[in-house]
């Protein structure tokens, strides 16, 4: 079975674009394992239902408030805890809720889902990536790539 | 005056908003819908842009309503340049609108609104307790996405709708797939009626409401169906030509929100599915009339939560109409057409359509080279903001014996019934 990396976020909203940029860097890297597919989902994760089903591993890459800007954490979905206002999301159904809906319907195994979270500084519309996030992305991409290569079958 | 923030971040809506009570002593003097998303300044971004960049830029006001913005933008530019699309182009654009409406309404009804009625906090919990309903909602959403992808080129920010036509017309295989999926979607739409018809009562708020929607000349639809706006209230029915939309919206900035408020003759306006049905009851098909009856929907309604029921009626209508268009295209064959040639000229063009959440206005003025001199975009959620606050006030007054927690829950239900798209409403700010 193949693995999937999904970049989430709004490319027009400052650091919320972190997932977009990271997924683009991964997709362009020749060292990406052959069994890893990379997609960008923007803000509607439910559209990806058919692409998610049947994967051995799914990693969602997304911006996360409450972490130091430019920091990185790889968190299993089963250990993810959203703050009460974390569900109040510009995605109209939060990305975590969308995954939980698919899990509840038996379409996705939560044990196969992880979140690659990037701490953000500014997610206002029509702003560029903050310096903290922009300078951290290459190292985060390298860490993700290392993890994907180490976990290759 | 003091304030009490009842809801800091409204859940299960698109974008960031909150609800605040303004107090004079122990009395609630007002209830605010706080729009917290920052300004996007897209209208100003258009100044000096060439005509062929306008629709691609403005479709990015929102990813949920991107078809409505893209096509309405094209229609406004076509009006300015005197371009008349072919009947086939009109059918294809209507299919895109129908796909977006089906997707948006399915998402809102099944995943955003229904949890409240089943007493669960979120869609994932609802998916565990009502899996068949949620699956039907996701299937409808997927069908809406497929319509948009097939005709528009992709599910968000369509690339296939161009000035004067479409880039690539669907082939027969595409249409056959759509026909198959829409046939199944009709069953899911009927299931939606059954599910929503069986919901517990939600009639805790009642207020005379002024509705505004495009007056549909001959059939129920969302784009190129009429050139005037009907304003319907207890006082009767009035009309505003689409080109005179500014008389209808009279936008003004308010201190507590990045979304401007709209009023007509001093009255807040409600737009959206309920407004469309109220203003165009005679255009509803037999299947829609049956759905209205099964849902117990009485028009005109004084309950803003009936907007969710109206969306379910539109799911039935939209699947039916989309299937009819697909059958027509299969029967007649899709013609190989080139987009109408564009000859830019100085002048103004305005288009008023019905986005999933209601009236959408795009109006541009171009110079002789086809560059934007002025741009005006008015979105349904911005129009609805003042009406939403009116219904908040009515809810507070009519639920004064309820606990703060119950009042908060009811206000959130009112807000969600409007299905606000907050990102759309903050395209321009002049605050304070």
Keywords:
heterodimer; A: 153 residues; alpha/beta; 5-stranded mixed β-sheet; B: 432 residues; alpha+beta; 3-stranded antiparallel β-sheet; 14 helices
Oligomer: heterodimer
Work out the number of β strands of chain A. 5
For the biggest sheet of chain B, the summary is: 3 strands, antiparallel
Number of helices of chain B: 14
Residue ranges of chain B: pLDDT <50 for 5 or more in a row? 426-432
The share of residues in extended strands of chain A comes to 15-25%
Poorly predicted ranges of chain A: 84-91
Number of helices of chain A: 4
Report the radius of gyration of chain A as a whole number of Å.
14 Å
Strand order of the largest sheet of chain A: 2-1-3-5-4
Q: What is the helix fraction of residues of chain A, given as a range?
A: 25-40%
What is the overall pLDDT average of chain A?
Answer: 85
- For the termini of chain A, the CA-CA separation is 10 Å
Q: Which percent range describes the beta-strand content of chain B?
A: 15-25%
**Helix and strand sequence of chain A:** EHEHEEHEH
Kindly report the greatest chain-chain contact and the residue count on each side.
A-B, 23 and 37 residues
**What is the 3D form of chain A?**
globular
Strand order of the largest sheet of chain B: 1-2-3
* Number of DSSP strand runs of chain B: 15
Rg of chain B, rounded, reads: 21 Å
Brief account:
With 153 residues, chain A is an alpha/beta fold. Chain A is 29% helix and 22% strand.
